[in-house]
Specification:
Strand content: 25-35%
Strand order of the largest sheet: 3-6-9-10-11-12
Low-confidence stretches: 1-10, 170-212
CATH topology of the largest domain: tt1808, chain A
Distance between the termini: 41 Å
CATH architecture of the largest domain: Alpha-Beta Complex
Number of strands: 14
Mean pLDDT: 79
Number of domains: 2
Shape: globular
Largest sheet: 6 strands, mixed
Structural class: alpha+beta
Length: 212
Amino acid sequence: MALAKQYTETTQKARYSEAEYFEFERTSFGRWEYVNGEIRQMAGGKDDHNAIAMNVARALGNVLAPKGCRVYGSDMKIHTGDGVNTFPDVAVVCGERQYYLGKEDVILNPLVIVEVLSPSTEGYDRGDKFAHYQSISSLRDYLLVETNQARVRLYSRRSDYWEMREIVGGGQHGASLVGGGRPGLKRCLRAHRDRKKRVRCRAGRHTIKSRW
């Protein structure tokens, strides 16, 4: 994608400092992430993508807000341990919020991050972006939500590895699984925070037993 005028033509260079990124983002329209010295534009989500992200945020907020957590949408930046500044679809912070360089629009300590997959970003969300997120010491759960079927993948941090669990349900739209009133997923989302007992995550004909 093309950068704004002040970062093209005679001033364009291969790498930008983080200070240049924050100044550029402050004066530019849209969302831009900072990765390895590069400033990259982030595309906006389409109808289903935005609706599913909102449903996930609502479901998480209903469960976690009473526990002192805040749920953020895609306008809140996350700063990773390896120096990336980016925007997840949904992020959760529980307890005291930590801001990067005192910037109240850049969070350092998310507990949960959610990405709603789309064809143009799915590979990045599963690969390099997840690798960046893993450098966040506070992060415990990373949830990937598909848009063309009722399927989510939850990656949970263990002592020295990430454990993946998949929850599959009926229907053709992710929104029917996320925030659509299914008690199975609500119990699974609640377990993100509680982690106290064995829960049975049930969606459609598929059942996954895990100690969360």
